[in-house]
Amino acid sequence: MSTSDPPRILSVEDNPDTRLLLEHTLQGEYDVTVVPNVEEALDHLATNSFDLLLLDINLSEKDGGVELLHTIRSREHIDDIPAVAVTAFAMPGDRDDFLQEGFDEYVGKPFTRDRLVDTIEDALPAG
């Protein structure tokens, strides 16, 4: 990847309104792919490379963002991609819980564009 290529982000978000918000918020600065479920996320990860994952915690299927991250971390070629938990869980201690589950960062909903971008930049590998 040349230094002029924007970071590639895969976002897994089941809410259509939030998917549109993420695409609109991040377009231009990042190369963003937004998918609605775990199955599509794993399909994209099998055939594309990404610099960062934005994973919604409460997906409307049996496997949520934490389970998806565990699956990703168990696969050799994708186990080191930084991951940000995106969630409406905003209780004290939640950030630590998500970091213990293997996430690199956490952003609560609702989020501002600046907060989301700052969190992404914190989680992206330097260089």
UniProtKB/TrEMBL annotation:
InterPro entries: Bact_response_regulator, CheY-like_superfamily, Sig_transdc_resp-reg_receiver. SUPFAM superfamilies: CheY-like (SSF52172). This is CheY-like chemotaxis protein. Pfam families: Response_reg. It comes from Salinibacter ruber. The modification 4-aspartylphosphate is found at residue 56. Keywords: Phosphoprotein. PROSITE patterns: RESPONSE_REGULATORY (PS50110). GO terms for biological process: phosphorelay signal transduction system.
